[in-house]
Amino acid sequence: NCKVHYFIGGGRYVMKNLPNYWENFNLRRIKAKIKFYNLIRYELKDEIEQLQYEYIKVLPKEFSGNPNVIFIWGNKVANVLFEEGFFAFVIESKEIAENYKKYHKYLWDKVAEEF
Q1: Distance from CA of residue 53 to its chain's centroid?
Q2: 12: phi > 0 → left, psi -120 to 50 → alpha, else beta; which?
Q3: What is the pLDDT of residues 9-63, one digit of tens each?
Q4: pLDDT at 80 over 90
Q5: Cα–Cα distance between 91 and 74 in angstroms, integer?
Q6: Which of 11, 35, 39, 102 lies 20 to 30 Å from 49, alpha-carbon distance?
Q7: What distance in Å separates the CA atoms of residue 54 and residue 65, rounded to the nearest whole number?
């Protein structure tokens, strides 16, 4: 039901690592007009094409590192590490999600560059 999803450190990892899931999810997302606000990793900026209903900005090189993404939607925050031993945990908390949305907004407004 959440119409806006926020990402910090995005790099198309789901698309690359879980292509069957991604295809189905993305079709449902587009149909529902769910918007993505994606702060992508600097080193991936030339590889990524903008999706429908997606807004992208690029994090500085200093934010690069492991393929780790913070995904915020509704009252949930997922912290996902896309390595060989794929690892994720989800926190469901209105207060924590609100704080992560503030972090995302700060990075979006003050740190990240236009795509």
Answers
A1: 13
A2: left
A3: 988 988 988 899 999 999 999 999 999 999 999 998 999 999 999 999 999 999 8
A4: yes
A5: 11
A6: 102
A7: 23
Q: Kind of pairing, strands 35-40 and 113-114?
A: unpaired
Distance (Å, whole) CA 109 – CA 76? 22
pLDDT-derived band of residue 106, with 50, 70 and 90 as boundaries?
A: very high
What is the rounded distance in angstroms from the CA atom of residue 30 to the CA atom of residue 12?
A: 16
Q: For the chain, how many residues are written?
A: 115
In angstroms, the CA 110 to CA 63 distance is 14
Cα–Cα distance, 71 to 14 (Å, whole number): 12
The DSSP symbol for 26 reads H
Residue 76: how many other CB atoms lie within 10 Å: 16
Which amino acid belongs to residue 57? K
